[in-house]
Amino acid sequence: MLPNIVLVGFMGCGKSSVGKRLASITGHRFIDSDDLVVRAESRTIQEIFEKNGEEYFREVESRVVGELVGVAGIVLSTGGGVILAEQNRLSLREIGVVAWLDAAPDILFERASRSGRRPLLQTEDPRARFDALLAERLSIYQNLSDFRVDSTELSHEQAAAAILDQAIRNQRFT
Predict the structure, then answer these.
(1) Where does residue 69 fall: left (phi above 0), alpha (psi -120 to 50 degrees), or beta otherwise?
(2) Whether pLDDT at 33 is above 70
(3) CA separation for the pair 82, 41 (Å, rounded)
(4) How far apart are CA 136 and CA 123, in angstroms?
(5) Which of 36, 121, 155, 160 is 20 to 30 A from 19 in CA distance terms?
(6) Domain ranges of the chain
(7) Residues contacting 168, CB < 8 A, separation 6+
(8) Could you tell me the CA-to-CA distances from 2 to 53, 83, 141 in Å, in that order?
(9) pLDDT for residue 120
(10) Overall average pLDDT of the 116-142 stretch
(11) Integer Cα distance of 32 and 50 in angstroms
């Protein structure tokens, strides 16, 4: 049986796009933690940040991630900052094999900047904020993940195939 696969990584790495492809390959259900937050709050992430701030958003995010422990047959795409809370890191490891989807910093920034809907980049100097957040989180991604896939030169399909291959190799039996 295929394990659950949890995708972590910084904004712009392609977790949602690759996760959807991975779910279609595996037959697992695709779940996006940001979508769960939006559904739980009946408002957008941007609205949550504007009205209640990042701390509140992180509380809701922790709750919805915690509710996935014990659920089988899923590919979970997480928000880039979910890894900041120790409890979330424990939950993610309980949920499944943790794959770190990564890319070159310039590529990540270009991808993350496309939509203009990244609350953490709504600053006077988005690149400086991006670089600071990335530097803060890199070691956490590295320590949390079972493996890393660099998507810089990969299509979404290639990244999904690489993740599936590594997930099978790194499957934890509990």
Answers:
(1) beta
(2) yes
(3) 17
(4) 17
(5) 121
(6) 5-164
(7) 2, 3
(8) 37, 23, 23
(9) 61
(10) 81
(11) 21
